[in-house]
Amino acid sequence: MTSQDKRPVVVGITGASGAMLAGRVIDMLLEMDTPVMATASSAGRMVWREEMDETFGSCLERWQDKGEFTYFQPGELTAPIASGTFSTRGMAVVPCSMATVAAVAHGMSDNLVRRAADVCLKERRPLVLVPRETPLNAIHLENMASLARLGVTILPPEPPFYLRPKTIEDVADFVAQRVIHALGLSDALPDHMRYEGPSGRA
Is 118 a member of any domain? Predict the structure, then answer.
């Protein structure tokens, strides 16, 4: 693996439902030997507590034991991922709340998740948002449309019905793979992480 390959991926976790999605994205990146730098908003950790059996603290310990993983508190605006001079391979915000979508769309950088996303925009790095809200109102849609026009990938966590998933974990794994693909890292996915439908679609 080259030094360029060792640049980290940033993962931001916000206060929308879907904590499992964030967990699977980080798990898969670390299984691919991709360094991860993560941060979570206070609302993101609150939702994690409601939805996950494994505590956020336990996950942090497991990820730190598993590979090159660094966690920053949401108020650490001196963290390297808050600066464009620190090179990364891009960022995924998963799950992404509508408050975070709005903040990023309007250049508000009042916590580390939002600042790191703003850095990706200004440095023209891959930025993937996994929005979790339904139904969507016109404000939500306009904010996402303005980000899409800037090159941001808006990746709603839609179930792959054509693959006939059996469990919610199957859906989470599929979404995590789509996030990794959108970041431009799909060539690094091991075979056992690839979903293939009847026609060979990944």
Answer: yes
Distances (CA, A) of 112 to 51, 143, 168, 174, 183: 23, 20, 29, 27, 20
- Type of residue at 196: E
Q: Give the pLDDT of the chain (202 residues) as one tens digit per residue.
A: 444 478 999 999 999 999 999 999 999 999 999 999 999 999 999 999 999 999 999 999 999 998 799 999 999 999 999 999 999 999 999 999 999 999 999 999 999 999 999 999 999 999 999 999 999 999 999 999 999 999 999 999 999 999 999 999 999 999 999 999 999 997 766 665 565 554 544 4
* Cα(33)–Cα(120) distance, integer angstroms: 22
Cut 0.90: pTM above it: yes
Specify the 3-state DSSP secondary structure of 30. helix
> For the chain, what is the domain count?
1
- Within-domain flag for 2: no
Q: Is residue 142, in this structure, part of any structural domain at all? A: yes
Domain assignment present for residue 200? The answer is no
- Residues of the domain holding 115: 7-162+170-193
